[in-house]
Amino acid sequence: MKVRQSVIALAMAGLTAGCAAATPAQTQAQNQAPVSSGTPAPQPTESNPPGDIPDDTVFVTYRHPGQPYEVKVPEGWARTDLSTGAGFTDKLNSIRVETMPAASPPTEASVRSQVHSGDIRTVGAVSRKGGTAVRIVYRADSSPDPVTGKVVKDEVERYVFYRGGRQAILTLSGPVGADNVDPWRTVSDSFRWTAS
Fold first, then answer.
1. Residue range 103-153, pLDDT digits in tens
2. What's the chain's average pLDDT?
3. Using CB atoms within 10 A of its CB, is residue 154 exposed (0-12), middle (13-18) or buried (19+)?
4. CA–CA gap between residue 47 and residue 146 (Å, rounded)
5. pLDDT on residue 49
6. pTM (predicted TM-score)
7. Which pLDDT tens digit goes with each residue over 26-64?
8. What is the pLDDT at residue 1?
9. Do the bridges between strand 131-141 and strand 153-163 make them parallel or antiparallel, or are there none, so unpaired?
10. Which value, to the nearest 10 degrees, does the dihedral of the CA atoms of residues 52, 55, 57, 62 take?
11. Which of 53, 54, 117, 168 is most buried, with most CB under 10 Å away?
């Protein structure tokens, strides 16, 4: 009887070990990707938060006739001509550049006084490839959407450049939370005074 119980116990131990050994193999087989049918799997669609300018955006140089500057803007954005410059928009983002006479170079105080927002984030002098500018960052409500009337909170970067009695104001805006650091740097670095 003891021999029989020993044989049964050994057999049970063998079955248990066999099942335990099979479990990792079965799990591994279940986790393996199915065999390809020759059709490539679809790539996931890039999902950007509202207002993010795509990484593959192409920038083109804009020169306003009669104004002494040039700046790069995203290709394909809608342009509005202004007597003092131009505005560019695409969905929730905008770029505006204007020039006007100025008696003296901008200061932090003079630039701060031009902004009518109680939500100023930072103001100070910055170096860009086109020269030194006073940069102010603030938040303000967007213009209402012409269809829905919806207003969003925008993060606004304004640069004031100066040369020989003229100032150029470059204003970049997009929804708060949009990651437009690189595109805005491209635009602000591209501003150049040209021969008038």
1. 999 999 999 999 988 899 999 999 999 999 999 999 999 888 888 888 889
2. 82
3. buried
4. 25
5. 57
6. 0.73
7. 444 444 444 444 555 554 444 455 788 998 999 999 998
8. 46
9. antiparallel
10. 80
11. 168
With beta carbons less than 8 A apart as the criterion, state whether 188 and 128 touch: yes
Contact call for residues 64 and 146 (beta carbons, < 8 A):
no
What is the residue type of 4? R
Q: How many residues does the chain have?
A: 196
| 31 φψ region: left (φ > 0), alpha (ψ -120 to 50), beta (else) | alpha
Instruction: Report how far residue 16's alpha carbon sits from residue 132's, in angstroms, rounded to the nearest whole number.
Output: 77
Write out the DSSP string of the chain: -HHHHHHHHHHHHHHHHHHHHHHHHHHHHHHSPPPP-SSPPPPPPP---TTPPPTT--EEEEE-TTSSEEEEEETT-EEEEETTEEEEEETTEEEEEEEEE-SS---HHHHHHH---S-EEEEEEEEETTEEEEEEEEEEEPPPPTTT----EEEEEEEEEEETTEEEEEEEEEETT---HHHHHHHHHH-EE---
Amino acid at 154: D
Measured torsion, CA atoms of residues 70, 75, 78, 84, in degrees rounded to the nearest 10: 0
